[in-house]
Structures are given as C-alpha cells and as structure tokens.
Amino acid sequence: MSQFNFPFEEETKDLKDLRLRVRNFIKKTFKEDKITPSPDAWVFSTNPSFSKKLGDQGWLGMSFPKKYGGHQKSMLERYIVTEELLVSGAPVAAHWIADRQSGSQIIRYGTEDQKKNIIPKITSGECFFAIGMSEPDSGSDLASVKTFAKKTTNGWKLNGRKIWSTGAHLAHYMIVLARTTKQVDNNRHSGLSQFLVDLSLPGIEINGIEDMTGQKHFNETVFDDVVLDKDSLLGSEGKGWEQVVGELALERSGPERFLSHFVLLDNFLNEFKSKMSEFSTLSLGKIIAELQSLRIMSFSIASMIEKKHSPEIQAAFVKEAGNNFEKKLIEIIREMSNLIPIQTWSPSLKSLFEDATLKIPSNSLRGGTSEIMRGIIAKKLGLR
Ligand SMILES: Cc1cc2nc3c(=O)[nH]c(=O)nc-3n(C[C@H](O)[C@H](O)[C@H](O)COP(=O)(O)OP(=O)(O)OC[C@H]3O[C@@H](n4cnc5c(N)ncnc54)[C@H](O)[C@@H]3O)c2cc1C
User: Fold this and answer.
1) Residue 135 and residue 118 in one domain
2) What is the full DSSP assignment across 224-259?
3) What is the reported pTM?
4) Do residues 172 and 196 lie in contact, with contact meaning Cβ atoms separated by under 8 Å?
5) How far is the CA of 328 from the centre of ligand 1 (A)?
6) Dihedral sign for Cα atoms in the order 316, 319, 324, 328
7) Tens-digit pLDDT profile for residues 64-94
8) Range of the structural domain that residue 58 is part of
C-alpha cells in the first residue's frame, strides 16, 4: 500500500511575518483601490492591476528560478501568500492559473526561449493563462481528447474544440492537450502532446459560456486550422499524458479547494458573533475545526512538494475533503437562517450566501469530479 500521511509542518516566525506583510498589503490596497472581497475570487474576480501589484511585491512566480524573473522562494512561502489572498477574497483570477500551474509546467518542460519569453511576464503579473484540457466529449476521460495537432514542415496545424476553459477570454496563452498521432494499440495515453498556444493567433475563436449565476467566466475555444510554429510544442511530442498528470496535481493540491467561500463564513461571523446561540456556536465550531484540519493537511502538501515528493493521494484527498467541506459550510450557514432570519442579514451577506449556494455544484466538478478523486485515492491505496 502507498504511504498516506501528512507530516506536520510548523509555521515559522518568518512565515508568520510574511503572512502579516501580505495581510497589511491586501488591507491597504483594498482601501486605496476600493476593492471589495468576492466569493470564489480565484475564478471569478479579475483585476489585472491588482495582479500587477502582487507581481511588484514579488508574490507571483514565487518559487520560480531567479534566472527567469522568479524569486526562488519556498512552496511554504507561496502557500502563505496564496492563503491570505484566498481568505480575503482578493481579485486574483487573472493570474491564478499562470501562477499556479502553467508557469511551473513551462519551467519543467519548456525550452530556454519559452522560459525566457514567458516566465518573467508571469512573475510580473502581466501574462495570463487558460487550461485547455476538457472537450465537449472529454472531461474526466482526458485521454479521449480529439483536438488534433498535425505536423507540418514548419510546425503544427491545430484543429478542435476545448470547453469550460476558465478565463480564456482574458488570457494570453492556453496550454492545449492535443493528439499528435492517432491512438495506437490499446495505449490510450500515447500520442498526446501539450502545446503553448498564443490565443491571439488567427483561427482561434473564444465564446463565453454563461453559468447558473449568470456570469461568464468559462469558455468554448475553437481552433480552426491554427498555424503553430515548431516552438509551440511544450515538452516532448507524445509525452502529453505524463505532463498533464503533473499539471493536474498542481491544479488540485492548493487551498483554493476549501477556501473559495471563506469570505462567507468570515462575514457571517463578523455580523452575528454577538448573537450566537449554543447550537450555532457548536455547528460553527465544528466547521472551523474541520477547516483547521484541512489547512494543516494542505500546508503539509506544500511542504511535500517543496521536498520534491509527489503527494498525489494527499492532494486528491484534500481536494475531495475540501469540496465536501465547502458544501457543508454553505449548508450550515443556511441552517443559521432558521435561528437568525435571512431578512435581518445585510445585503452583502445575503448576496455572498446566494452566490455560494448557486456555486455548490461546480466546486466538486472543476479540477476533477468527486468520483474521479475517490477513484485516484482508491487506486493509489491499492484498493482497486
Ligand atoms: C467551474 C468550472 C471550471 C472549469 N474550468 C476548466 C478549465 O479551465 N479547463 C478545462 O480544461 N476544464 C475545466 N473545467 C472542466 C472540468 O474539469 C470538467 O467538467 C470535469 O473534468 C468533468 O468533466 P465533464 O464535465 O465532461 O463530465 P464527465 O466526465 O462527463 O462526467 C459526468 C459524471 O460522470 C462521472 N464519471 C465520469 N467518469 C467516471 C469514472 N471513470 N468513474 C466514476 N464516475 C465517472 C463524473 O464524476 C461526473 O459525475 C471546469 C469545470 C467547471 C465546473
């Protein structure tokens, strides 16, 4: 059976100091720029000027090498910054994907030119990315993607369709998973490659898709005979599957999987802490204890990544437990309306609650569904 534990990692004094610096920066910038906290801000709240300010502070591309404009800080330092941004509902959606996964993917697999051209712009908060994995008929089953990149004399010709790509309408690049050879034998994972696609190229059409909340944050992206040069290939031809699995681990392992609606809890407590009955204190206490456990596990994952381990089961576990926590949190706040009538809630709290309620279904879909996460955990533990 694979190892499944979460070594405890202490938050050092330096990390605590960093946390305070980030908190003060957020407070000051929110005031100066009249920013209000948003729920699910890492997906929905885009503010390129805020992203640039974070870049100026050295809080983007924190773990990337200095050679490419990064800061060579630890994953634990990055975790602290990320956590503070999430709990304050800061407008981080513009740079989130580039900072979380695309930049690391380029550093790991990219050519020297790709690194030199793109990484400094990610770390300065001026270059945004979208994820091009899902397709209309391939979500959980990524190996079945049909988008095809055909080799030409000077590079590649890309045809196909990606769907649900968060922020593609604002992004400069998309990392696209495509087939480069038809599936051979029974190996469904062979013949896939990743491409670094400049979204301003001719032949690319990006169509917004409205979600249940009426917002348009994700998109369908159509590639119609898009001409890509040789340098667009990211990593090795035919190794797209191995590469995308690593990218998914980065996508799934962070604290955004349980902190998306922290602003709702925070606002609720601020508004009603003096009116809590014994019952509500007990329910909220339980949920806060659960949150604290998730934080400890997620911080431990950051430490494992820092030590070059690959905490795949742990990441899948925290994503799944985190998504369940978010559902439970919203449910408990809903139960509170039996004790404190919703008519007495402030308009901003009501709006946070309504928004969170409508987003419940998407939390356990994005980044991989619950069934897929449980399947990964079971497989890695040797249970299936
Ligand atoms: C808010 C949001 C943002 C997203 N952003 C992006 C993005 O930026 N880029 C991107 O590429 N994608 C994105 N996605 C897509 C997301 O990753 C997919 O929706 C997800 O992988 C599920 O794929 P699907 O919708 O095709 O569902 P399907 O794969 O068709 O699954 C349907 C149902 O069947 C279950 N199922 C499927 N296979 C199995 C199995 N083997 N065993 C058991 N049950 C199974 C699933 O759990 C699910 O309940 C986003 C989705 C959401 C909701």
Assistant:
1) no
2) EEEEEEGGGEES-TTBHHHHHHHHHHHHHSSTHHHH
3) 0.96
4) no
5) 21
6) positive
7) 999 999 999 999 999 999 999 999 999 999 9
8) 13-127
